[in-house]
Structure of DUF1848 domain-containing protein:
Amino acid sequence: MIISASRRTDIPAFYSDWIVNRLKEGFVYTVNPMNPKQVSKVPLTADVVDCIVFWTKNAQPMLNKLDVINGMGYSYYFQFTITPYDHRIEQNLADKTKIMEGFKALSEKIGRQRVIWRYDPVIISNSFSVEYHLEQFYNMCSSLKDYTTKCIFSFVELYAKIRKRTKGIIDQEVDFENRNKIAYAFSEIAKGHKLSLETCSEKIDFSNYGIIHSSCINQTTIENIIGYSINGKRDLNQRPHCGCIESIDIGAYDCCSHGCVYCYAASNENKIYQNMRQHDRHSPLLLDQPYTDYKIRDRVVTSLKNGQVSLF
């Protein structure tokens, strides 16, 4: 089983104590987003968790927890987003200099192969031009090249609820011409810094620039980390062009206070802060305690390992 922690919120930044407690107790309750009273009890013991994929924009609160997680025998890697936006776009995010320092500290602790840099999403507006992105991407590549092996990028998608939130800030998606211009330039910059460049959930094929379609929960990456081949299946519950393999997400929507205006996992600020106040680091649920009228079912999970060590 692969655990996603989490596409829905930033667990390393806000809930690092909680995730350590869940791993110590060996289980977690997850809520069906479409039916909040349907709760699953998911085992989290190291014998069935093949790998944990952490998603974050600030790993600092997690750094002092990693030795504990390592000691319990878990394998993991990080999808770490660093973008060049200011507080108009990422309203409450910590200072980018400190975030970069956290990225480097994480890489030094667990290895550059286990820290994947996400430049995601690419936004073009009056404030953030193509030229701005090329300059910032070059600077970030120069700073991070010794602390990661790859960068994954994608272009902003303005879903209906996001359009309302971003009106006057991000008024349109990136057009075809600018996507190609950015992809080509990014590829040349990445090559110059010996970084692999990949896309996430992008329809356009940029393979002529040496850019491959990537998957964030990636079977090859996981096999390299854990030293075993696994029976991974494509996750059909994700976006059409997503290549991720199946995982169980243990996060929840509307409980991340970074304030990124482009985020599909957040609806409104009041709801977010209300939810975050309900958090109990000792609860099996990320948000509030389970009630007696919840339908709690045991989710049957198994390891995906084939049982033979992969040769790399």
Remarks:
- The two ends are 22 Å apart (CA to CA).
- The first strand starts at residue 2 and ends at 5.
- Residues 2-20+48-275 form a domain with the pyruvate-formate lyase- activating enzyme fold (CATH 3.80.30).
- The chain is about 30% helix and 20% strand.
